[in-house]
Amino acid sequence: MKYDNTKIVALCGGIGGSKLALGLNNILKQKNLSIITNTGDDFLYLGFYICPDIDTVIYTLAGVNNPETGWGREDETWKTLDVLKELGADTWFQLGDKDLALHLFRSKEKRKGELLTTITRKISKKFGLSTNVLPMSNHMVQTILETSEGEISFQDYFVRQKHKPKVSNISFKSKKPVATEAVNKALLDKDLDGIIFCPSNPFLSIDPILSINRIRKLIEKHRKPKVAISPIVGHESVKGPTSKLMKEMGIEVSALSIAKHYHGLIDGIIIDKSDEKQIEDIRKMGVKVKLAEIIVNTEEEKMRLAEESIEFIQEIAL
């Protein structure tokens, strides 16, 4: 393989970021890829410990995700959910039978006192992965949105209310905002070639990771190239409510705004070819720019963007 000796750490959320994560996973040796995954979406539901972004990343890398929704399992069935509805349970969060089995396993392991990192490693191996899928924290971190309807937890906002309320601010709450040993080890690895910010929602998927001070500081001080991929094409987000959030919080919807948001953390940013006019303004910030086709659908396109990301890291390192 062309990138056999390349070691990368990627910061990743769910559906949008996992597309690039899959590309990276396909072109790198899996053991050389560490994916620090957002857990700000995690919550307890019907007694189960749910980790939406971790599961989306694992399902995607293992090739068992639902290609139509981007989340959940392919060829899913819903018998358990149907019975729960009959029993009068609140079933606003969709849990398929295959997906539920994973939550049962995770919840059982949690009750035994296992760390989320250990549980995630076990699950990854069961899916045939040697990729380092690393929860950003072993402790619950809550993403809280300040909205026109008061403070709302992430899943309530995103799923139950279908991200309709107007958002004015986002914060993160945790009793133990501590980076895991595995995350520390990945970021301190002397053989690391670079860090990639996947094109996940910067405010809901990447910021929760960066809210852990140790992780932010390690990235700020890292001497290897750090590259972000813009989730904005033109004046719209590639996936999800990123552009809606930006408008509501008074932030211009543009690749330039993404570069500003990550300023001080990144050395370069990959933006869509259609946003070429923003290159000079970004370069004035001291951030290098590479043009690419950001919207990827096929596996080949995801691998192509992953290769361009690594090549950009190599160019910056020269």
Describe this structure in words.
- This protein has helices at residues 15-27, 52-62, 79-86, 97-111, 116-126, 154-160, 181-188, 202-210, 213-221, 242-248, 255-261, 279-283, 299-317; strands at residues 8-12, 33-37, 43-45, 48-50, 132-135, 142-147, 150-153, 167-173, 194-197, 226-229, 232-233, 236-237, 268-272, 288-292.
- It contains 13 helices and 14 strands.
- It has a seven-stranded parallel β-sheet, with helices on both faces. It has a three-stranded antiparallel β-sheet with strand order 7-6-8.
- The mean pLDDT is 95.
- Helix content is 41%, strand content 19%.
- The longest helix has 19 residues, at 299-317.
- The chain is an alpha/beta fold and 318 residues long.
- It has one domain (8-68, 116-143, 173-317): Rossmann fold (3-Layer(aba) Sandwich), CATH 3.40.50.10680.
- α1 (15-27) runs parallel beside α2, α4 crosses α5 and α7 (181-188) packs parallel to α9.
